[in-house]
Amino acid sequence: QVQLVESGGGSVQAGGSLRLSCAAWGYTYRGYCMGWFRQAPGKEREGVASIDSHGSTIYADSVKDRFTISKDNAKSTLYLQMNSLKTEDTAMYYCAAFGSLSLAPGSFRYWGQGTQVTVSS
User: Fold this and answer.
1) Residues 6+ apart with CB under 8 A from 40
2) Per-residue pLDDT averaged across 89-117, rounded?
3) Three-state SS for 85?
4) What is the full DSSP assignment across 32-82?
5) Backbone phi, then psi, for 105, in 5-degree steps?
6) 23 near 113, Cβ under 8 Å?
């Protein structure tokens, strides 16, 4: 059974940084795309960043040059380094696996429970 568990969320002031982690169990970690998504209250879930098995990445325009997605295959862990955070980055952040190099939520099969990120001004 595939399990994804996010951590690292919290409250931070605008301009600050956070690093999210997603620990994965239950499948051969290396061979699949993974991604980070977020959902703010009253809004649809949106793609933030995605990474494939070769390390190729894509980012939403709203987070380019501020967020970095990476993975540690030995630890079966996905990361999202978030710098220069803005109030509009406030959302529940979700890790997803078994997808394609895409920012479309429908491209991914498995999801974690999410970790809340709150950015205050």
Assistant:
1) 90, 91, 92
2) 95
3) coil
4) SEEEEEEE-TTS--EEEEEE-TT--EEE-TTTTTTEEEEEEGGGTEEEEEE
5) -55, -35
6) no
Give residue for tokens 């809004």: 43
Indicate the burial class of 101 (C-beta count within 10 angstroms; 0-12, 13-18, 19 or more). middle
Q: Which tens digit of pLDDT belongs to each residue from 42-99? A: 999 999 999 998 999 999 999 999 999 999 988 889 999 999 999 999 999 999 998 8
CA 77/CA 70 separation, integer angstroms: 9
* Residue whose entry in the numeric block shows the structure tokens 């696996």: 97
Radius of gyration of the chain (CA): 13
**Rounded Cα gap, residues 102 and 48, in angstroms:** 10
36 touches 91 (CB < 8 A): no
Residue 118 CB contacts under 8 Å (≥ 6 apart), including other chains: 10, 11, 12, 90
